[in-house]
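ligand=calcium ion
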Amino acid sequence: MKHAWYREGVVYQIYPRSFQDSNGDGIGDLNGIIKRIPYLKDLGISIVWMSPVYDSPNDDNGYDISNYQDILKDFGTLDEMFELIKKLHENGIKLVMDLVVNHSSDEHPWFQKSRKRVAPYEDFYYWKKKKRNWTSFFGGPAWTYDEERKEYYLHLFSKKQPDLNWNNPLVREEVKNIMRFWLDHGVDGFRCDVINLIAKADGLPNGKPTPILCGHEHYMNHPKIHPYLKELRDEVISKYDCFTVGETAFITPETALSYIDEDIRELDMVFQFEHMAADNYYVKWFMKKFRPMNLKKPLSKWQVGLMGRGWNSLYLENHDQPRSLSRFGSLENRYESATMLATMIYFQQGTPFIFQGQEIGMSNVSYDNLDDYQDIETKNIYKTGRKLGLSHQRMMKKIKMMSRDNARTPMQWDKSAFAGFTTHTPWLKVNPNYQEVNVENSLKKERSILKYYKEIIRLRKNHPIIVYGDYQDIDFKNQTLYAYSRSLGESKLIVLCNFSKGQCSIKQMEDLSKYECILHNYPAYDHMDKLLPYEARVYLKK
Ligand code: ISL
Ligand code: CA
């Protein structure tokens, strides 16, 4: 694969509301991020992706934007944003912003004018006299009646997130202007929110009746999307040294390649979600027991499926997903399982994405009380579940395991009150484990998850094989061991990960005497025939 900085770099995702408060109002902000740049630099990451900080009524924590060229007051000012870009760059860190353009906020002036039919905004959104049967990602109908316009409008997410009409060339011009505005101010790329949903079938027909996401066949990866993305690429992205990563749920490697193939490059990479179904039936509220094979199968499929043609993104967490340690690891083996998971994912081919707090082993908060959750998805799904007749207990069980707020609790910096995140009550309660699980502690300890992450990032910088090597499974059928190799020219790397609480034999493996162990998560590794609980090792051919 061609060399590129965004392939070699490591991305750190910041959820600004929960990263660092600088003025004691309990909400993270831009100055807080500036204050923590030394931490990011020390960690060794080279790119920050920041979840939205634009002006917003916060119905969906900033994913409902009312002004794309201004900053939400809670977070700071435009000048502070420019200062953040400058300071990051001075420290050799690039910045990727969230581009949320499938929908805007209903409080955006475009929508306000559209509902009044003010020219030229009449057709900025999808309006219909007759309601469609589509359902929203957050539960409930996706079409809502607007009293003012006396028509229904489409919202695939909350009713305060009306979908923009991409058929309208004026809408596309506005999107390009937004992109240029930020790129001209030095931003280095975009994470494109739900980008594979932006094109909708002509006439917006009713969907085939299904209990979940009714209507999806009319907008998921709809063929009309390709000219839209090409237009953005040709007129904007190609003119800058930047990259895009599309958030694309419900996608296969084949569909992904229709966006990211080296010869197409409508997007530079995508976030796929197949491995996020390792403990559920593709809809996270329908949970099933986690099995290592359920991670291994999709991850391996994506490695093989894109090889030589497209570039992967490597992630286990983001602001929408519960904590990986709670889902796929073990809280009793916190250090071993968190470092094993990091080894498993970040030695594959692709660009690593680390979600804030993952590097210190933050885990699910699982509040008992519904009132402690703030997330709109959590609140809506509770209502939907109860309407369908599920008990309070049953819904709380699902929410404790799957709520997005599990990822959104404040970053745990130290053991002082509110974990050093704020001096005041934070907007979302801190995870009670912060006395033990925090950055300060991780830096003091001789062995910590944080130090292990730093080591992975350092190794990646020194060994091109970790970035560009080809991927191959080893002993694929093994139910507890995830083993694979990477190869680049003459060099070869072997990654061994034990997903079980017990030991796991590696007798059948290659002759490892020709290899040097460059990373391992146990103090000693002289037991050459087996791996201990959640043990991980990385070998490089001498
Ligand atoms: O969060 C999810 C499941 O819990 C997903 O269905 C999620 O809604 C979907 O991946 C889209 O996510 C993105 O767009 C949403 C926003 O709420 C998410 O935070 C964002 O990542 C609407 O903008
Ligand atoms: Ca603040």
